[in-house]
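Table S2 (continued). Query chain:
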Amino acid sequence: MRAAVCGAAALVAAPFLLIVLVAAGPDAPAADGLAETPTASARRDIPPDYLRWYLAAARTCPGLSWSVLAAIGKTESDHGRSTLPGVRSGENHAGAGGPMQFLAATWNAYGVDANDDGRADRYHPADAIHGAARYLCAHRAGKGGKRLERAIWHYNHSEVYVRRVLAQAAAYAQSAASGHGVLAVKAALRWLGTPYSWGGGGTRGPSYGIAHGARIKGFDCSGLTQYAWAQAGVPIDRVAADQYDDGPHIPRHQLQPGDLLFFAHNPANPATIHHVALYLGQGRMIHAPHTGDVVRIAPFAGDPYRQRQYAGATRPASRHTTDR
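Corresponding output:
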């Protein structure tokens, strides 16, 4: 077994409390890997062909939500319905053209022939939408969180634009709430107050750890998360850095209870991940922090230390793996 490496910085203790899991109930359907589905209003507003292209293009960039592409398409051209210059032909005053409003130079670098007609055409919606997915992915939008926000900012250098796109994306998307995630959270909550033990814990519950955890029966950070998701019927790896790849990466604005939150010395490098926690909702998480502490509920959204080290989130998905 490889020892899990977990965070060593103390968090302000949060009182034990009952958590209301508003995102999903225990009988909610399992996530399907797309993280979200179109709302009724999205289906009314987005032309069927455009919606199909948004969904297909998002799949070319793991972790990128179709709703972000749709929100950009809405903002740039109302899904191609705008009559402003540059949408169907020519360019606008800034030199942008097509339904996703690409500059010629940017299109030359990121254009895609999605409809297989032999040319990448920024005025064809399928090509333009796939080109937008390629551009956003190149700017790490699939990693979610601040990297998604930064990628949208690269698309249009405006913080107002970023907020507008994310708000529209949220309006278009309906969470495919994970019943598995709710079960994982409930399993972890049963062990509040259990001692932290370096290398301790696994699919069967708390255990004696290794090294300075050898005489302590409890959990380290990844032992707790592995246990919690095992109780939900989803096996994941034992080490925090390995758990990062145990499911699709989830943008921060789509977090649901049970999603795994990862923290790294260098957030841009998953190999430096040293801590993992379970998201509870409303900016909180449950985790096993460090030696001398216990499994507890703690702030996530408002903790500067965690925000600096936040490397992304994963929603575990069933696959073959066993205790290591």
